[in-house]
Amino acid sequence: MRSAAPRLAALAAVAGLLLTACSQSAADQGRGDPGTLLVGGEVEPQTLDLTVTSNASIPSMLLGNVYETLVDRDQKGTVTPGLASSWDIDRDRRRYVFHLRQGVRFGNGDPFTARDVVFSFDRVRAAASRHPFKQQFAAVSDVKARDDHTVEVDLKRPSNLWLLNLSGPVGVILNQRAVGSLADRPVGTGPFTFGRWDRGNQIVLARNDAYWGAKTQFKTVTFRFYNDPNALGNAMLAGELDLITNVPAPQSLPQFRDGGRFRITTGHTNGEVVLGFNDARPALRDRRVRQAITQAIDRAALLKTVWAGYGTLIGSMVPPTDPWYEDLSKRVPYDPAASRRLLDAAGYGGGLKLRFRVPNRPYATQAAQFVADQLGRIGVRVQMEQVEFPGRWLDEVFTKGDYDMTVIMHSEPLDIVQYGNPSYYWHYDNPKVQRELAAADAGTPAEEVAGMREVARTIADDAASCWLWLMPSIQVSARNVTGVPPNVVTGGYDLSSIRKS
Amino acid sequence: MRRTGFVLVGLVVAAGLLSLLWAPFDPARVEPGGALLPPLRDGHLLGTDGLGRDVFSQVLVGARATLAVGVAAVLIASVLGVPLGVAAGMAGGWPSELVMRTTDLMLAFPALLLALVLAAAFGASAVTGIVAVGISSVPVFARVSRAATLQVMAQEYVTAARACGRRAPGVAVRHVLPNVAPVLLVQATVAFAIAVTAEAALSYLGLGVQAPTPSWGRMLHENQAYLFTNPELVCWPALAIGLTVLGFNLAGDVLADRLDPARRARP
Amino acid sequence: MVWAVLRRTLVMAVTVFAASVVVFAACSALPGDTATVLLGERADPASVAALRHEIGTDRPLAVQYADWATGMLGGDFGTSVVTRRPVWPQIADRLQVTASLVVTGMALAVLLAVPLGVLASRRRIGPLVSVFGQLGMAVPVFVAGILLSYVFAVRLRVLPAGGYAPLGDPYQWVRHMALPALSLGLVQGAVLVRYVRGEVLEVMEKEYIRTALATGRTWWGALWHHGLRNAVVPVLTVIGVQFVVLLSGAVIVEAVFTLPGVGQMLLRAVEGRDLLLVQGVVMILIALVLVINYLVDLLCLAVDPRLRRPA
């Protein structure tokens, strides 16, 4: 046997390391520095290319910060100028002329011109394009550059939604030389340039000093990813973050209330939590059954228990940040007695059996257990089954339609249009809704608002789905951070209003 | 001290059996008005969770899932592992070598990895968890029974039985299995404890027993959001899991000491 | 000796090959394909088919396997469709984190288990140590992690709650590694204590120890000079076997402390149906287990000459 000395020395060395580790206090790297902002988020995207996947966490970081769009939407949902300082619409509402901002440059120094707009839009529209939101450009027939700073877009039919959608991921203006590296080095015209990506850990944005608009206070903004909600909360409590932009579970909020170290900001998102019915099933094609289910669910109590009362009851597929929002939450009220009568009238009083396939996300499973219990009380037998999300849910429920009921959050802006699409996974086929949607899309701004309001009411009365609640935007920020944008409107998280002292 | 393990195991089994007949509340019953009640309020022995469901009833009924996962995993492991091990031990030569190499390969698959891939393939559920845990215990069962078989086969009475012209299956059933059984019983308690922990871990990652079936692992998963406001909601299921694992481990130790003469002699 | 080493090497190579077939088959059986998940809810069927063709998932399985396996031999694990990056460098990035965790966790476990296990074999302290062993085994790894993070990161604020610092900055690395390694090491150590105790008890009853004791050595002296070397082989074997358990534990600990290791990457890859990445990670982890066990085997050969005879 060799001497014991080296072994003991090694032991002492490791023990020493551990002791120093324990006796030092946490170094708040960057937390006190007003030039950096540390943002905590839950899901790290696997790619940064928002033209190939609909993953919402990508635009959340990049849209409005690295990438910009011709038009933007403010916190109230109103369309505002973006890279286009103004635009004209001709009389039959089929030709848009955008006047572009001059002197704008991309993060890599290239000047921004009408050619970039044509390039970006054509890339979405191309026959071989696999853009997840290609459908939003279906109305476009032609995109031309009139000169360096004027773009002309012709539509096949008038479409208001097209312009609104331009503020979302489909409308981002790409740099022609950078499309090869969209997945890991995005280049845009925004107030930030892409800095670096430490995979599995963080993404760093850096200030674009050549930005055309108001310059940001932050030299760098770091998005850190925590897959576990408790770890995210712990990081904030331990002082490693300035801001959590989306608190994953409101039940954890009380931990941020003590001692006034934090500020909680709530607002609206586009995320309607929808109890979806598969109308391909005869029972659920019956409006009375859908209405009976809707009336059997006490949505106010559901919101209170499942999401700690955070969020908004909506009653239709419209968030308060859409121009045609009105409160429809009491339109089909909670009324179990009426619910039983409706079921009897529809011929399902003797018992209705439904397969309830739910994605394995906390909000969905919690809500589904509540719903299953409430439906049990009116005599509906619910077979609940959790399905892995996104893989299996997308494949089996969404694509193949193998379900009776499901719960999912629809987070895309303006997704009310899906009620006009009978091949969507609800198989909801109502010609009245389809007519109303088409008319609203083609009308003047006033007609649009009135028309969309009509659509929202029609689907509510028809109990096309049961809208459980609108997901709130819940943010926690350190005391010295102000100006967080409360609402999520376009899908982008706009950093420009945030200040840190 | 010697009896602690058996008492704990007995408690868990009793809870599972009792829950088949009676529980103070329906564990799936949602009470919007009565969420997050503290223990002993309104007849809720351990209070209620975020949906207003009775925690005690969930713990009680959850014992069933734990026992089911454990029993099923042990069954899978023994049904596949024991014949494999006994056959390998009796046959010797290349079949034995093949079985050993196959178990080597299986030992290299971490149970969790297997569960993860299975969950992705067939959906996360109690069944995929059970299969994963069961399959990962197969090699241990196969090896233990092979080793025990080798020992038995060297005994004189076995040699005698074979010399008398008894066929291999007959020898296996008459002489080998009874002698291998005690060792396997010890192994089963160990596998059971592992299965319980694995179920909790899988549920923590959201891949175990699925809603609305109550299970301790899933309670941990669901109540995690309340860790800072109502830590007791996480404590109850954690305690239940800990005590069950402790029970099976202690019982296994005692069994091992009793059944293994070599160990009995030790201090 | 040469023959023994050669034979073990061959067996390992065959096992790795068999594992690759199993991994490929399992991953190909996954329902919900990459193209559908990537393109999301609004994609049209033509785009999905086009993407499927582009990434080659419409080819026969045997061709796909041959392609993948031959690539791996040259260190090429393919290019992920989702991230558009080669698979190997992605895994290599994350492997550093997981390796840090597993190695420090195992080191802590051994540092904890060996002295405690030896102590436990003494009659007086034995029961106390067994209690620690039993408790450690009964606490799930993630519960230990959550508790440690609650105490040290949230309440005491002396260590970070999560994240990773590369080895280049040793001080930060130690700070970030401390809690995860401790959660893993405590639980794993509790398991090892039992083995160490058992082995020490067994060794100390051997003839040569009795002889040593009879010739005037103290119990500790006999253990140090004659016992440890003989107890080392079984304990080493157990450590090799426990390596698999440790990897599973690491996946969970990575989730608790948001360490960007292979476990986290694997969870995300399964969700996103990044098939090549899943295959690559699983394959590498299994190969790692096999290689570690192979090395342990060799180590045992070196320590214990009796094993060198052909089996």
Q: Which architecture of chain C per CATH?
A: Orthogonal Bundle
Structural class, judged by helices and strands of chain C?
mainly alpha
Total of helices of chain A? 13
- Give the total of domains of chain A: 3
- The counted number of beta strands of chain A is 18
Question: Which residue ranges of chain A are poorly predicted, with pLDDT under 50 across at least 5 consecutive positions?
Answer: 1-28
Q: Round the Cα radius of gyration of chain C to an integer and report it.
A: 24 Å
CATH architecture of the largest domain in chain A: Roll
Count every helix of chain C, treating DSSP H or I runs of 4 or more residues as helices: 12
Tell me which oligomeric state these chains represent.
heterotrimer
Annotated CATH topology of chain C: MetI-like fold
Describe the structure.
The complex is a heterotrimer of chains A (501), B (267) and C (311). Helices cover 28% and strands 23% of the residues of chain A. With 501 residues, chain A is an alpha+beta fold. Chain A folds into three domains: 133 residues, Periplasmic binding protein-like II (D-Maltodextrin-Binding Protein, domain 2); 109 residues, Dipeptide-binding Protein, Domain 1 (Dipeptide-binding Protein, domain 1), CATH 3.90.76.10; 204 residues, Dipeptide-binding Protein, domain 3 (Roll), CATH 3.10.105. Chain A has an eight-stranded mixed beta sheet with strand order 8-9-10-1-11-16-12-15. In chain A, strands 4-5-7-6 form a four-stranded antiparallel beta sheet, with helices on one face. Chain A starts with a helix and ends with a strand. In chain B, 58% of the residues are buried. The two termini of chain B are 15 Å apart. By secondary structure, chain B is an all-alpha fold. Chain C has one domain: Orthogonal Bundle (MetI-like fold), CATH 1.10.3720.10. Helix content of chain C is 77%, strand content 0%. In chain C, helix 6 crosses helix 8 and helix 11 runs antiparallel to helix 12. Chain C starts with a helix and ends in an 8-residue tail after the last helix. The chains are: A alpha+beta (501), B mainly alpha (267), C mainly alpha (311). Chains in contact: A-B, A-C, B-C. Chains A and C meet through helix 1, helix 5 and helix 11 of A and helix 2, helix 3, helix 5, helix 7 and helix 8 of C.
